[in-house]
Amino acid sequence: MNAPILVVDDEPDMCWAISHLIQSQGFNVVTAFNGADACFKLANGDFSVVFLDAKLPDMDGLEVARRASTMAQGRPSVVLVSGYHYQDDPVVHDAIAEGIICTFLAKPFTNEALLKTLYSLLPTDR
Amino acid sequence: MGDNSLKKSFEVRYDMLLNAIPSSVLIIDRQLQVLSVNQNFLSKSLRSKESTVGRLLADVFPLVILQSTGIEESIRNVFNSGVAIKGQKMTYRAPGVPLRIYYYSILPVPNDQIMLIMEDVTEQVRLSEEVRRVERHLASVVESASDIVLSTDIDGRILTWNSAAEKQSGLTTQEVHGVFFYDLCDVNQKPAVRLIFQRMRAGNEPHTTEFHLLTPNKGGSILISWVFSPMLDDYGKTVGTVVVGRDLAERRKLELQLRQSQKLTALGVMAGGIAHEIRNPLAVCSSSAQFLLEDNVSPEFHKECARKIQTNIQKASAIIENLLRFARSSLDTDMGEVDLITVLKETIELVTNQAKVQKIQIQLSVQKPVILVTGVSGLLQQVFMNIFLNAINAMPQGGVLSITVNTIEDRVIVRVTDTGVGIPPGELEKIFDPFHTSSPVGQGTGLGLSICYSIIRQHLGSIQAESRLGQGATIVVTLPLL
């Protein structure tokens, strides 16, 4: 279980917090600050989980998720992490129903909730 | 040529001359006998030459006229004194003709004769009565108006002051007559109002403005919207100024309510962007705080977490502060010195969140770091906020919002251009109308730009729109420089 985890957020401090949290559990983390960078890294790396901000300067987080969902193989589990949407937001609901994202985490989150989400998405053979 | 024919020729010329005079002329001797008369008199009095020449005045004029004018006495006086009598009035009604009014003069002429010249002024008298009637009507129009109407001479001294002016100012016509109008204005406004009167002297353009009128008898002052118009004489030369004023208190109250409700709409639009922007620093603070709660935190990491918390709280606080400033600013409505660039920068900061969410790039290009105008900064911010949010709404797929500021002569021109959907040609002239909206029902009040229009008008500026469908739109705001 060495597949790294991708953290996408245009706010460096946000990336710092999520990365630190995940790294503390012994995982490898790769960060991206915009949509294009995220798409490039997704296409050229093998990620198990992606923590994805909804609003990126160049494109919508959901658009990144949509592209990730079309990947033929090594398709990661995508968690939308956002302060723009809320838990029962129809947009979030639809994205989950369509299978574009696995789940949603509202900002601000507890570290515990983020880790719980992470572990729930990792392969069980760990 | 014999003596007789010479005499005949003189008589013909004499008659010709007499008849050519467009007034009634009688030559009378000391016995008050008519020696000659011209055609004008004969036709006005419906008499023949035979029944007039050689007759006594008493036979020619009706008795009632002779008695009422005492004309026989006057003629005798002229014979005795040799001094002419001029400009007397006579009302003459020949049998069967309407009443005529004459001015007459009695002039001594050589050889012991006098000339009675009667000028028919019936038409002039009728006209002057008509003029008086029109004057009375105009005066009652001015008096009945509920707006202040006053006139001044070319230097700005008050000549007339209507009832509404008396009522609203508490000053009577007697109190203000001859007073310089600008002496009734607030001390700070005096130089500006004086300048308006100077401009009236030179130009033919009316001038619109707003300032307080002092009401010394009631204490305090009232805010009035004024229109100054030059009063021109028949040759187009300015001879004075007409000033019309309307009390703004009631309108101001309505405008304030309207602006406030429009502001709430704008706040609603901004809420999405702001929520996103505040929750980010909150999330960083939250995670950092939770890291600090863990055991075995290294001193360096402890510091780093505390720093992250501190900077992110400041970030969130700055967003809230901007919001508060925007929400409250409308309470301040006094005009003052305002730096337009600061207003623009603060407003841009407020919409940055929303722009970011929609992937819109904002560009501001200015010539000078500071551009001063007279105005209310909160109101100007509301205008630009409205224009920016409209532009952002027009670019759902992202784009560029560019703001350029230029000064030309005594004006500053702000152009706000988007790369959005544009405005259809037919809509362009309607966009400043109240309740005109392109948004679906329930999403826009249609009041935003009409409020912008009223605010900019209040700042003595103008606002225009330029657009081609599908090629974005530009809103141009022009304001007078301080």
Strand content of chain A: 15-25%
Overall SS class of chain B: alpha+beta
Overall morphology of chain A: globular
Q: Give unreliable regions of chain A as ranges.
A: none
* Residue fraction in strands of chain B: 25-35%
The separation of the N and C termini of chain B measures 91 Å
Number of strands of chain A: 5
Total beta-strand segments of chain B: 17
Return Rg of chain B in Å.
Answer: 41 Å
Query: Which residue ranges of chain B are poorly predicted, with pLDDT under 50 across at least 5 consecutive positions?
Result: none
Mean pLDDT of chain B: 86
Radius of gyration of chain A (Å)? 13 Å
Give a verbal description of the structure.
The complex is a heterodimer of chains A (126) and B (482). Chain A is of the alpha/beta class and 126 residues long. Chain A is built from 5 helices and 5 strands. In chain A, strands 2-1-3-4-5 form a 5-stranded parallel sheet, sandwiched between helices. In chain A, helix 2 (35-44) packs parallel to helix 3. The N and C termini of chain A lie close together (6 Å). Helices cover 45% and strands 25% of the residues of chain B. Chain B has helices at 3-20, 39-45, 57-60, 63-69, 71-81, 122-144, 163-169, 173-176, 190-202, 249-293, 299-328, 340-357, 377-393, 448-458, and strands at residues 24-29, 34-37, 85-92, 100-109, 113-120, 148-153, 158-161, 207-214, 221-232, 238-247, 336-339, 360-366, 372-375, 399-408, 411-417, 462-467, 473-480.
Task: Give the helix/strand layout.
The complex is a heterodimer of chains A (126) and B (482).
Chain A: E1 5-8, H1 12-23, E2 29-32, H2 35-44, E3 49-53, H3 61-69, E4 77-82, H4 90-98, E5 103-106, H5 111-121
Parallel strand pairs in A: 1-2, 1-3, 3-4, 4-5
Chain B: H1 3-20, E1 24-29, E2 34-37, H2 39-45, H3 57-60, H4 63-69, H5 71-81, E3 85-92, E4 100-109, E5 113-120, H6 122-144, E6 148-153, E7 158-161, H7 163-169, H8 173-176, H9 190-202, E8 207-214, E9 221-232, E10 238-247, H10 249-293, H11 299-328, E11 336-339, H12 340-357, E12 360-366, E13 372-375, H13 377-393, E14 399-408, E15 411-417, H14 448-458, E16 462-467, E17 473-480
Parallel strand pairs in B: 12-14
Antiparallel strand pairs in B: 1-2, 1-5, 3-4, 4-5, 6-7, 6-10, 8-9, 9-10, 11-13, 14-15, 15-17, 16-17
Helix pairs in contact in B: 10-11, 10-12, 10-13, 11-12, 12-13, 13-14
